[in-house]
Design brief:
This protein is mainly alpha-helical. It has twelve helices and two strands; from the N terminus they run H-H-H-H-H-H-H-H-H-H-E-E-H-H. A two-stranded antiparallel sheet has the order 1-2. Helix 2 packs across helix 4. The longest helix is centred in the first third of the chain and has 19 residues. It is elongated and about 60 Å long.
């Protein structure tokens, strides 16, 4: 869809809650919730992530009331709604189909890493405008190094430029961050600090202290 994860998650929660309210009028809510939970468990894997979903107050209150009504935590109930909404989402179905047909092998990831390395450094100046980053070579290199989480539309364009599958490029960037994560020294006390997590797009952009117009343009890439 070319939108940020937070926006996609918010829309899915709203869609899932609307469907739950509608279906609960004709189906026993307890049985319905069990079905939703089963769907969520089908997505469960070895790894998990915690998200913060920003939504309007009305949606949050609706979800909290439903969760309390069925004695579930807001986080678990939201997880059920997300899973159910994903099962009805054509975009998600397309992604699952593409993922199934294109296995992210180690060999493919290694090739993607090589392709990323070939456009990094000084060459990132030519790459930046091709992925909507204008003259931001430094920011482009941070993305290529895996230290900054790029917006979906930027990643999609990067995959096109590299001529690699999007899922393979995403894994390659994660791997580059994991292998290049080294201590950085503070000037104040000399103690090493390590960037343990990839930096959010909004944080990285604001830290550049760019002119207001350019900052807003870059931030809007995530919207």
């Amino acid at each position: 869809r070319g939108v940020s994860l937070s926006i996609a998650a918010r829309d899915l929660v709203q869609d899932g809650l609307t469907r739950f309210d509608k279906e609960s009028r004709t189906v026993d809510p307890s049985e319905l919730l069990t079905d939703y939970e089963r769907t969520a468990n089908d997505y469960a894997g070895a790894d998990s992530e915690s998200w913060i979903i920003r939504a309007d107050r009305r949606l949050v209150m609706r979800a909290r009331l439903r969760a309390g009504e069925y004695e579930r935590s807001l986080s678990s109930f939201t997880n059920f709604l997300l899973a159910n909404a994903l099962s009805h989402c054509p975009h998600a179905a397309a992604v699952r189909e593409a993922t199934t047909s294109s296995i992210t092998s180690d060999e493919a990831v290694v090739e993607a890493i090589k392709a990323i390395e070939q456009v990094s450094g000084v060459k990132a100046r030519a790459l930046a405008p091709q992925i909507d980053l204008g003259e931001q070579r430094g920011l482009t290199n941070m993305i290529l190094g895996g230290s900054v989480l790029a917006p979906a539309r930027v990643l999609a364009k990067l995959a096109v430029v590299l001529k690699k599958p999007l899922d393979v490029v995403s894994v390659a960037l994660e791997r580059r961050f994991a292998t290049q994560c080294v201590p950085a020294f503070k000037a104040t006390d000399g103690k090493p600090t390590v960037q343990a997590e990839r930096k959010a797009w909004s944080v990285a952009v604001k830290e550049l202290q760019l002119p207001a117009e350019e900052q807003e343009r870059l931030l809007n890439l995530e919207g």
